[in-house]
Design goal:
Blueprint lengths: L9 E8 L4 H6 L4 H7 L1 H17 L4 E4 L1 H6 L1 H9 L3 E4 L12 H17 L6 E2 L8 H9 L4 E2 L9 E5 L2 E7 L8 H7 L4 H18 L2 E6 L1 H4 L2 H16 L3 E3 L2 H11 L9
Parallel strand pairs: 1-2, 1-8, 1-9, 2-3, 4-5, 5-7
Antiparallel strand pairs: 6-7
Helix pairs in contact: 9-11
Bound molecules: zinc ion.
Length: 267
């Protein structure tokens, strides 16, 4: 309850995995209709989401594959200029655990090169498909990342420990039930049904003073009825008056400071 900055009871973090059509380009390169779907994000959804975030005065984190930066550069630059954070998310939305060591290193290199072209050096990473290997963590440490957001073992951020040693990374845990993709895309739930999953989870997190990390995908959440639902949910959170809306970077920085004297053995 007393973990968060003074005056705040719980933390809400809003993140968008800005995949655009990276996954389809890698998986089904000749399916031009499938590839078109991801373009809904830069064309329609992201501008709509940015306007919503401005209205509610919330800053978010966009985990963005290098492909999205290279192909939809203006859109990503717009996100940055509106004050939001960019995190790394592979190059073509690769399944990192299926790659050779050299190929995984190359993915990170290409991803960071794309970001550097628009003057961004991400300090946070979220694995595509949330597939992370031990090797991935070593790469994150070597490349100077400060936090990861791919594990599912808590509803509070924590110091990421591997083999009894602090990696230097803060983990911002995620969870399938707080991800728009399986709910809307896989299970075809209505906005009302998703609201009825997210709202009680938030209320419980609020009561306990913990961390509510919501993962959305622009092409999924950016449809009108879903975005209206998200606006209603976020507005109700804001009305509480003591919810800390923080980007992943802000949450990780705060957690590192708060836990600086204690290294919990979380494996
Ligand atoms: Zn993704």
């Amino acid at each position: 309850m007393d973990f968060w900055p003074t005056g705040y009871r719980c933390c809400v973090n809003l993140s968008f995995d800005y995949d655009s059509n990276s996954d389809e380009v890698r998986n089904v390169p000749f399916d031009i209709v499938a590839r078109s779907r991801g373009r809904f994000a830069p064309k329609v959804a992201v501008p709509r989401i940015l306007d919503l975030l401005d209205r509610l005065e919330i800053k978010a984190t966009f985990f963005t594959p290098g492909w999205t930066v290279d192909m939809f550069t203006g859109s990503v630059e717009n996100i940055v200029s509106r004050g939001h954070e960019i995190g790394a998310h592979g190059y073509l939305h690769e399944k990192l655990t299926e790659l050779s060591f050299e190929a995984e290193e190359d993915v990170f290199h290409k991803s960071l090169t794309a970001m550097a072209k628009i003057g961004v050096k991400p300090i946070g990473f979220r694995a595509p498909y949330w597939l992370v290997g031990e090797r991935t963590i070593k790469l994150l440490m070597r490349l100077g990342f400060r936090y990861d957001s791919s594990f599912m073992d808590n509803d509070m951020p924590y110091k990421l420990i591997r083999r009894q040693k602090y990696t230097g990374l803060i983990e911002l845990p995620i969870e399938w039930m707080l991800d728009d993709w399986p709910l809307f895309e896989t299970n075809k739930k209505s906005p009302e049904a998703v609201y009825n999953i997210w709202k009680p989870e938030f209320e419980g997190i609020y009561e306990l003073g913990r961390y509510f990390g919501l993962t959305c995908h622009p092409q999924t959440i950016g449809r009108v009825s879903r975005l209206n639902m998200l606006e209603k949910l976020l507005s109700e959170m804001k009305e509480k008056g003591d919810v800390w809306f923080a980007t992943c970077k802000e949450t990780a920085d705060w957690t590192r400071k708060k836990l600086s004297s204690s290294i919990r053995k979380e494996t």
